[in-house]
Amino acid sequence: MDKALFSYALRMGDSTLVLAQRLGEWTGHGPALEEELACANTALDLLGQARMWLTLAGETEGQGRDEDRLAYHRDVHEYTNYLLVERENGHYGDTLARQFLFDAWHCFLLEQLIESSDEQIREIAQKAHKEALYHLRRSTDLIVRLGDGTPESHKRMQKAIDDAWFYLGELFLDDEVTEELAQRQAVPLMASLWQPCLEYIQNALERATLRCPAEQDAQHKAYRGGPQGRHTEALGFLLAEMQHLPRMYPDATW
After folding, report:
1. What sign does the CA torsion over 79, 88, 17, 223 have?
2. Which of 102, 138, 143, 202 is the most exposed place for a label (fewest CB within 10 A)?
3. Is 250's pLDDT higher than 90?
4. Residue-averaged pLDDT of the chain
5. Residues 32-69: tens digit of each pLDDT
6. Distance CA 128, CA 20 (A)
């Protein structure tokens, strides 16, 4: 088994799956119908990407676990998603800050994965990149609107960015998985994405009249441990809800 490829596909699948689940929580609770539908559509896009990554992980592992088995029958410590995506939704500004930071990283990553030496990674990236570009345009536009909106929306958006900032740095950390795959030119080193991503974020926040938090706060003070299975309690509650029926009726079929 290609352990590095399995771990990376699982990491990406878990991250997109958990974020899709978080966004889905806004269904029926959005601040406006248009935004509620946009959240649902983004969640569906990410769910489709999660299916591709988890299918790749299952095929690479070769132990008969398909996308559903990987999604619904692993415990919290077996999930390897980044901590940013498991953060609770909070108010809508908190959700947008989380989405904006994820989208910026995701777009730059997929842009590199399109050139991957691994055919399966390349195919997933080609399908996901167009969706990610739309997600980034939308989240950037909303960050600018709210940041440069009313005094109240500006204040809330600034705090949302400040709070999410400490989760950003983990996305750019390399470990033995990414280093091995980078040697094979299957994925880029995550650290190589930091500068272009930071520049994009800084430019967007400037347009939004928002202050960009200190770079060292994202890097040296970053929360970390998600890819190693160390998570916040928020993920446990999310998985309990998501996995409830499949675990109660493990052999049920439609």
Report:
1. negative
2. 202
3. no
4. 95
5. 888 889 999 999 999 999 999 999 999 999 999 999 99
6. 14
Distance CA 72, CA 18 (A): 12
Enumerate residues 6+ apart whose C-beta is below 8 A from 173: 190, 191, 222, 224
Confidence of residue 222 (pLDDT cuts 50, 70, 90): confident
186 in Cβ contact with 3 (< 8 Å): no
CA-nearest of 4, 109, 12, 22 to 53 is 12
- What is the per-residue pLDDT across 112-126, written as a single tens digit (0 to 9) for each? 999 999 999 999 999
d(CA 233, CA 84): 13
Given a cut of 80, whether residue 251 has pLDDT beyond it is: no
Q: Is the dihedral of CA 175, 203, 104, 146 positive or negative?
A: positive
CATH number given to 3-248: 1.20.1260.10
